[in-house]
From TrEMBL:
It comes from the Bacteria. InterPro entries: HTH_LacI, LacI/GalR-like_sensor, Lambda_DNA-bd_dom_sf, Peripla_BP_I. PANTHER family: ALANINE RACEMASE, LACI-RELATED TRANSCRIPTIONAL REPRESSOR. The lineage of its organism: Bacteria, Bacillati, Actinomycetota, Actinomycetes, Streptosporangiales. This is LacI family DNA-binding transcriptional regulator. Signal peptide: none annotated. Keywords: DNA-binding, Transcription, Transcription regulation. The keyword Calcium does not apply.
Length: 329
């Protein structure tokens, strides 16, 4: 920029205003500066321009894991939307308690990103307060930060629909496989899906024995472990609702290794419509994960451009997908 200013015989600040279309430069002077810049093959650095205006042009994304299908799919949709608006994505993995504590207390992200997106992570009240003090826009995807915009599905209604599907098939002894987080707790999604399950069971006057509520770490191994525990019950259930497809897939592995005929002796339904669900003929509640990511991107862009979001709560629909792992009893 200094070379352009010297060649045009003007101050660097004048060149900066002219190249960015700012006022305070005459038409003739702007035309001369643009001509000189073109002759010198000078182009404005997008990152430098954003920094000069107090923006980094980057959005921070908080995820508990980067190897899970749900999180990677949601982040892919988010990145597509941000890229369309010239925004970069900075990924922060908050896998363990120590990583989370350090991230929220140090808040090094404040000067690196213009906004934060929380994907599938339930924030504690202390974490929400620390984010509020940072003064950045915050958006949730598959999580609902207090008072913040979010893109989500109705987990309670989706779980209730899955449970009604099983009761309509004649099942009465229905168990639920709950997922715990990396911190060993049940997140907001688990609480909502459990509430939907219990509500649908109560509608039919059906009890949920304590032995039919099994919690295990999220994922294939957790699902396999939880299903093994259910099979050891004095009276095993005839159907199982798993809070996610990856848990359900782990449960299917245990059932098949135990020679339990899936869809006859035991019905299984999951939640997500994971990319392997169709291959494994798994009944499930499909949610638009990629679209949640893109919708979250819309919320971020609107918050950055206008300082507020006109429609902050975006709840996308789910749908029941019936396949071979659920059948009449």
């Amino acid at each position: 920029m200094a070379d352009v200013a010297e060649a045009a015989g003007v101050a660097v600040s004048t060149v900066s205003r002219a190249l960015r279309g700012r006022p305070g430069v005459s038409s003739a002077q702007r035309e001369q500066i643009l001509r000189v810049a073109d002759e010198l093959s000078y182009s404005v650095s997008a990152s430098a321009s954003r920094l000069a205006g107090g923006r980094t042009g980057a959005v921070g994304v908080l995820v508990p894991r980067i190897d899970g299908w749900f999180h990677s799919t949601a982040v892919a949709g988010l990145q597509e939307r941000l890229h369309e608006h010239g925004l970069d994505l900075v990924l922060y993995r908050l896998q363990g308690r120590e990583e989370r504590t350090g991230f929220f207390t140090r808040r090094a992200f404040r000067h690196r990103v213009d906004a934060l997106v929380v994907v599938g992570t339930t924030l504690t009240p202390d974490e929400e307060e620390l984010l509020a003090e940072a003064g950045l826009p915050v958006v949730g995807i598959s999580t609902r930060p207090s008072g913040r915009p979010f893109a989500d599905v109705d987990d309670r209604a989706g779980a209730a629909g899955a449970t009604r599907h099983l009761t309509n098939l004649g099942h009465e002894r229905i168990a639920i496989l709950r997922s715990t987080t990396l911190l060993g707790t049940h997140g907001a999604v688990s609480h909502d899906r459990y509430a939907g399950f219990c509500g649908a069971m109560a509608e039919r006057g059906l009890d949920v024995p304590e032995a039919y509520v099994v919690s295990a770490p999220w994922g294939l191994e957790g699902g396999a472990q939880a299903m093994a525990e259910l099979l050891s019950a004095a009276t095993p259930p005839t159907a199982v609702f798993a809070e996610s497809d990856e848990v359900a897939i782990g449960a299917l592995r245990t059932l098949r290794r135990s020679n339990v005929e899936v869809g006859r002796t035991m019905s299984v339904i999951g939640f997500d419509d994971h990319q392997l669900a169709e291959l494994l003929d798994l009944s499930t509640v499909a949610q638009p994960v990629h679209e949640q990511g893109r919708t979250g991107g819309d919320l971020v862009v609107e918050a950055l451009e206008h300082g507020r979001v006109a429609e902050p709560e975006r709840v996308l629909p789910t749908r029941l997908v019936v396949r071979g792992t659920s059948a009449g009893h």
